[in-house]
Design brief:
Blueprint: H1 52-70, H2 84-96, E1 103-113, E2 116-125, E3 128-139, E4 142-153, E5 156-160
Antiparallel strand pairs: 1-2, 2-3, 3-4, 4-5
């Protein structure tokens, strides 16, 4: 039988009424937040005294360092923004492939003086956390990474500057 010749009957749409299966409860605030957080905390306070341009430069530098460690960028591309000692350490780490697969997780920036910013970053590597600390000094209108410490494994800390 052809579909046009078939009798068409509307099918009654009957849906069961919605029933609440779980009663929502409000929990008292705990000392340590549980996931999922009802309010997402601000990771870095805006009123910490670090100028926006310096914060952006620090974040860009940490992303570039993570790209160098992963092998997606050469360390020599950072010559304008890092000292030769920092470039040398990053080149050695890239050559050893010790940081292949590293990803930037969190970042904290502080300014102990107007012409210095210090960066603490947490990287992840194979499900483990890796610590990275850097110092950037103002050079005219831009910033230059003058110090770097990274602990890719528990046994070794790589330092520059």
């Amino acid at each position: 039988m052809h579909p046009i010749q078939a009798d068409r009957h509307p099918i009654p749409l009957v849906l069961p009424s919605a029933q609440r299966t779980v009663t929502p409860t409000l929990l008292a605030p705990a000392a340590q937040p549980t996931l999922p957080w009802p309010i997402v905390p601000e990771v870095i306070a805006a009123a910490d005294g670090v100028p926006t341009a310096a914060r952006q430069q620090a974040a860009a530098m940490m992303v570039a360092i993570a790209e160098v460690l992963r092998g997606h960028r050469s360390a020599e591309q950072l010559q304008r923004w890092a000292t030769p000692a920092v470039i040398r350490v990053l080149s050695d780490l890239q050559a050893s492939r010790a940081g292949a697969g590293v990803a930037l997780s969190t970042l904290r920036v502080q300014a102990p003086r107007d012409d210095v910013i210090e960066i603490a970053a947490r990287l992840t590597l194979g499900g483990k956390s890796v610590a990275l600390a850097a110092r950037m000094d103002r050079r005219g209108d831009s910033w230059q990474c003058t110090g770097l410490e990274i602990a890719l494994s528990g046994a070794a800390v790589y330092r520059a500057g």
